[in-house]
Amino acid sequence: MTDSKIDAAVLAVVEPSWRKVAMIISKAAHRLGGDLPAGDAGYHSIAGRIEALVRDGSLVAQGDIKNWRHSEVRRP
After folding, report:
1. What's phi and psi for 52, nearest 5 deg?
2. pTM of the predicted model as reported, rounded to 2 decimal places
3. Helical ranges in the chain per DSSP H
4. Does 75 score more than 90 pLDDT?
């Protein structure tokens, strides 16, 4: 699984309005399907890419994005 494939899945499910990081991870995982590593490793891969997208300005975050259920992201 490449970073660019995960990034594309995340950006495809993120909306202009705020959405919980947990929801974005779930939707991106569903979109990636069997290509995603099994178990929690796949979810953590997506979370890591969300953090990278926030750092590079592709996404905007509010809250501590390491706390998936209590933080949100959206398109800038």
Report:
1. -65, -40
2. 0.94
3. 3-13, 21-32, 40-55
4. yes
